[in-house]
Structure formats: structure tokens, C-alpha cells
Amino acid sequence: MFSGSRGFRGLAAATIIALAGVTGAEAQQNGGLPVASAPIVAGGDARAPYAWVDFCKRMPSECAVDTREAEQIELTAKTWKLIVAANVKANRDIEAITDQEHWGVVDRWDIPTDGKGDCEDYVLLKRQRLAEAGLPRRAMRVTVVIDEENAGHAVLMIRTDRGDFILDNKRNAILPWSQTGYTYVKRESQARTGWASLGGLSTSTVASLR
After folding, report:
1. 3-class SS at 147?
2. What's the pTM value of the predicted model, to 2 decimals?
3. Average pLDDT of 174-187?
4. Partners of 133 in the beta sheet?
5. Which of 194, 195, 171, 192 is nearest to 182 (CA)?
6. To which H or E segment does residue 18 belong?
7. So what's the architecture of 13-208 in CATH?
8. Where are the domains of the chain?
9. Residue 32's closest CA among 98, 74, 83, 76?
10. How far is Cα 183 from Cα 168, in angstroms, rounded to an integer?
11. Is 140 helix (H, G, I), strand (E, B) or coil?
């Protein structure tokens, strides 16, 4: 579905060390709220997935970037509860099905209004619901990773003042980006309609530098 390297590319060693430098912060609770590692630093432009381009032609409002919106969400207890509930509800509401089974094509992105979809469709539904609840869309980015099966996978990265967290249709638990075991390939840009590289940063790379 997606192409990308599992190897680490595109980010300087100093950047990786900075990403790994929040010792002991992961998965801690601070005032009842989670704390993640330092946020992932995006690099230069990346090629958009072709199915995303098609989706944006059909639903341009879902891809538009409003630079007046905040880049991060202030993570309060109320907001965290909202995010967790949205993740669980979407995972429960949608029947996992491949695009080939669903649409007869290899890859198609859509809002799963019929209750069926694959990983990108879960992501788009979660973001739509959270944006309708008042969270800034700009802080919620579709992200392409390489998963534990060495396959392309899409997740929703929520950027907060306590770090970057991952909403995933594979689990109800919302994890800090560095605890997923994934390799991070690219995500939607926060500066424009398009994509930014994440350099193939893997969580194992971060762990080895601690």
C-alpha cells in the first residue's frame, strides 16, 4: 500500500539524540495525564500517497491546512478523555476490510460512512470526529509508518503540548509515538496541503541512543 524504508534516513544524529533525550518521560503520568517523548521533527517535503491525492480531490476540506490553527493541542484531562473515547469508538464502529474487498481497488481513502474500511479510513473518521468536537485539525496528522509486519500502515498522530501520541486501529490504547514499535515514514504537513518526511525514524533507533 505504501512504500518506505525501514532504515533511518534524513535526520541528523543530533536531532535523533534530541528526540531521545527526555529520559524517563515516556508513559509517565503527570497530574493524571500521559507524557510522551520529545516530538518527532519533520524534515523536507515527501511524496503524498496517490490515494490521498484522489481523496483530497473528492473531499478537499479534509486535506486543507489552516495555518491560523494551533500546531499542538493543549492536553487537558477533558481533552484526553475525548481523544481516548474517539479512538475506542471508531475502532468499535468500523469493520476492518481491505480496499480490494470493499471497493475492488488496491488503495482508496475515504470517510467510512458505511461502517467498513481499512487503516486510513479509521484515521480519517477519528480526525473528522475530533475536529467536529473542536480540536484543531492542523494538530492531527495522518501518518504513514512501517508496522511490525514490515507493511505500510496509517495512523493518526495527535500533536500535543505533552508530546506526540498515536491513535491506531490495531489497539485501543493510545501510545506515545516512541512506544509503538513502528518506523515513521512521513506525515501530512502542518504548513501546507502536502506531506513532510519523517526520515524513516524508528522507535528502536531512539531506544538505542538512550
Report:
1. coil
2. 0.83
3. 96
4. none
5. 171
6. helix 13-20
7. Roll (3.10)
8. 13-208
9. 76
10. 14
11. strand
